[in-house]
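User: Show me sequence and structure for the first protein, then do the same for the second.

Assistant: Starting with the first protein.
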Amino acid sequence: MVLTEEEIEKENKRIAKQYKELLRISYRTLTDDDKTLIRQAFETAVDAHKEQRRKSGEAYIFHPIAVAKIVASEIGLDATSIAAALLHDVVEDTDYTLNDIEQMFGDTVARIVDGLTKISHLKPERDVSLQAENFRKMLLTLNDDVRVIIIKIADRLHNMQTMDSMRADKQVKIASETLYIYAPLAHRIGLYNIKTELEDLSLKYTEPEVYQDILTKMKESKEDQDLYIQDFSKIISDSLDKEKLAYEIKGRPKSVFSIRKKILKQNITFDEVYDKFAIRIIYKSTPEDEKFLAWKIYSIVTDHFRPNPTRLRDWISSPKSTGYEALHITVMGPKGRWVEVQIRSERMNEIAEKGYAAHYKYKNEGEQEDQNLDQWLNKLQEALENNEVNAVDFVEQFKLNLYSKEIFVFTPKGDLKSLPKGATPLDFAFSIHTEIGLKTRGARVNGKLVPLSHELKSGDQVDIITSEKSKPTNNWLDFANTARARSKIKSSLKDEKKLIAEDGKAILTRKLKAQKIPFNDKTIAQLVKYFKLKTSLDLFYRVGIGTIDNTKLKEFAASRSNAFVSFFKNKIRKPSVPQDIDREEITHNYDQLVFGAEEEKLEYKLANCCNPIPGDPVFGFITVNEGIKVHKKDCPNAIQLQSNYAYRIIQAKWIDSSQQEFSAVIKLNGLDNLGLVSEVTKEISNNLHVDMRKISFESHDSVFQGKITVVVKNKSILKKLMDRLKKINGIDKVTRE
């Protein structure tokens, strides 16, 4: 594309104008040194990109300037970040090297540019698992500098704003990656405006018809909405003016994406979405009066309009972990419509719009500024600790932490802890300390003993009961919801399984010796293949827990010794060694469904509407004529079934039958004596591999009968336990029901 001199001059004027605007709109106050740094970065970027053009035909330099403008005004970062944003594509796309940047701009700018270059090398993938792996690698650049991610979000926002000239398939690819990765991150950093824009733009490209339809309907209802806000504001303004408050009332429409989400989630039409907009009251205040004035405005609003008591959100007393502060109330406005009213001071409003940058503006010392950033960084690093093999699980857990709504609970000493909505006592225990989590025996909430699956609510006081003998069990994964708790439980279970696998290896060596079969790599490969497993550790673990017992090993020996058959089998096909045999992992083969808290095996059919496959999160629905139908938890019909027929929903999950523990009922008879029950329970709780589920004792004329339901890994553990119970003084008979 060749430009005339006149066009080049016009373009240069536009570039100079954009640069001046960048300095003018910067949220931070820029010193002379800052301006010099930004000028130098600008000139370097102009020189580096002078030959480049974007797909739309305009000079490439407009892109880094636009990203720098987002970083400067919308996110409000410092001069270092603005310079890094101007230079973010220089190392990747031009002849400049990282060393050049380091010499010209110093360590910090070079480190940020290096982090951004690393991320650019991660190509957007349609394959979710590769996308997840890229995401994990991207997050690891956080170790370099958190500003890397923030500038990357700004870069992605500008790319999304200027995607019109791209091919349709590319648009969908980039938009879906944005929804998958960048919107949750923007949310977590407290950049709500950017998160909303990213979501709306993603919807525009992934579901254009839906986006246009909602947008058109919103435009049609805008006039009505403006009049409504005017009526509402007029009623409140008179009272606020009487109190001589300086304030501003704004109406804010809900984003297209959030309306779409609501329509899907609640299975309703556009007209049935009742809170399509919120009213925001932003007031001027000194720091001392901030809280007092917020509640004063609250009382004025609720004098005029009846509030919905279940919809009060006080994020002033307990700010969100993103730093968000505000008072949210939902009131019954004129014409019988519910309206959300957000009450914020000017400071709170800036924090809501700029995230962490606004925090810094209101801090006096740089130390506190760093501390704030460190707290956020620690939260992200905590999620990164999860070094599980599966990148998709990692991302899902990470997003769980990013998007979760918060509750606030108290420790026994009265300290406030923030946890995601849906958190349980186990999540609370792990949030305090890993050791407390791993040793959890039980929990008291507001002084009462509760199960570990109990869902905590804001305001609960939680006290964790620990025991040196407690250890995580597989069931804990059903009760834990935070990424931290789940990753710690998984790694503890992994270590436990490896210990069992070591015992299993010793047992297998002995048993093979008895069968006169050599214990070597070839035999292990044959065994792994014979039992349809993946790794040698799978084999040793299942021998350790007893699901591969003497009988099964004898069957293997018999199939092996039938030389005539095996000779022909080998002729027909070469025995292939399982690919992952040496991997240090115990894998799952989800092959069986169990129902209810007791994990019973029942007859069922898989629902056609969502076709669940082994391993999917599922629930059972008891139909009238067809028994239990199994649906995926995210099945399109799930919400309707769960809300209309909650009493017919039954808990269900996939298990690996070759690893499964089983429950057994032990019957005891004997002579009643003082302290006998405590001796029996002590004997059971001393055995780490036994989980006691149910216990009942009856005494009649000095003779007692008891029933205990236990969950064990295998029959040999059960036999050992029964032998020990027989030795207790006063017990005559121990049998299995």
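Switching to the second protein now.
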Amino acid sequence: MSRRLFVTAPAALAAITGGLAPSLAKAQGTAAPAGRPLTIGIGGAVTSLDPHFYNASPNNSLSMHVFDRLVERDAQTRLVPGLALSWNPVSEKVWEFKLRPGVKWHDGRDFTADDVAFTIERAPNVPNSPGGFGGFVRAIQRTEVVDPLTVRFHTAAPSPLLPTDLGSVAIVSRHAGAGAGTEDYNSGKAAIGTGPYKVVSYAPGDRTELVRNDDWFGPKQPWARVSYRFIGNDSARTAALLAGDVDLIDQVPTSDLARLKRESRVVLAEVQGVRVIYLTLDRSRDGAVPFVTDNAGQPLPKNPFHDLRIRQALSLAINREALCRQVMEGTAAPTGQWLPPGSYSYNPEVKPDPFNAERAKALLAEAGFPQGFKLTLHGPNDRYPNDSRTIQAVAQMWQRVGVQTQVEALPWTTYSVRSNRQEFAARLTGWGSVTGEASYTLVNITGTYDAAKRMGTNNTARYSNPALDALTEKATATLDNEEREKLLQQAVKMAMDDQAFMPLFQLVNIWALKRGLAYDARADERTLATGVTPAA
């Protein structure tokens, strides 16, 4: 996409020379500081500057430069103070947050508890959101502004994970956000945060230019300006780094890893991530499903994916070890659930489904498809490492058990919208459990979609299991950490036994940087200018 929302010729010149676009400079009351710029090349497209529009990693990474949260997470996903200095339960159903004094919005106005109350109201109600933030505030029944620096959240039931949930919700201002839509954030009008950087310009599908906020309450940032660029093509991203056009890239192509490790001008930063790459099968329909037919090309009268045997067969047909070895080239690990080993609520009893083509064929026959059927597997081609290669490999594996599979890989900006509309029968996507525990997925991915209850926000397949929902609700309301972990582990097993979705592998997060720089590799895969420092 080449259309720019508020980039003008003066703005583009300002970004190159280090100055702010005149209109935004006036609105934010600042001039660009002197100092070294930083250029970042990301592999996933940012779809909006609205921090509540879409809960996707590229959007969230950019948002974290401009907006802060009450509670932040460090590189290991541990909770640390953000706009709130402390948080404590004052009763079983009330949390009190003490806010940081002296914080200013980018336009110089004071941050107060009223902005928090506005944010909690806005976050779950953004029109046309393809996957928003309602799940993180679902527990809150009422927000009480005690004083300008104290806010209390009243919940319907005990909510021990509320601070963890609020670590995912960017705080926006009432004065800039009241009556503002996503288009107002994208235009820059409402993109007024408290974060370490201010927005200069935003060009969807291309780049966002940022300038340092010298009034930020956090540590002084070494980068006066940041150019946050989308470079979706793997080869182009690596080439940009080697040519010196960018200082850092994420989603390092696996095919380039060996070369980059030998390259004296480059250093790598890596860490085990919390993102699972997985497949989902449409559960939104009882009748015919788009992109699914019999072998003669006629639509099937009933949705085959409601049959557990079909879901099991398709999972058993996948050789996860081969995917990790041949497609991911050793940068991923096979998994049967969505958290890496060692995480709170990881269930060691839940193993990856073993590759068993013969058993897959037998299950298909038992389900009434001894000759298989036809389907199309959809996925993005510019969002996750080797995403299009992965769906090609899975399609070949399904072909071998009799499921004639075509593949259609699409740009993320198109794919995400169509997926949210339930247009696909089978699809590949990814989900990062940035909270480091199981409820994040249970609420947002496997929870029955219910806008009123703010459940299943990212459940695009529309999977539904009332027993799993009940167990999730019980677990998230359990105060005792050990008991809650046991309940979450039970829920993990229930979801995976029912093939709520098909986990394929866990990613290792890798960044490549110019020598002389260091990056604090993050398990949540966020790519942040605040994590880049000149090497000691």
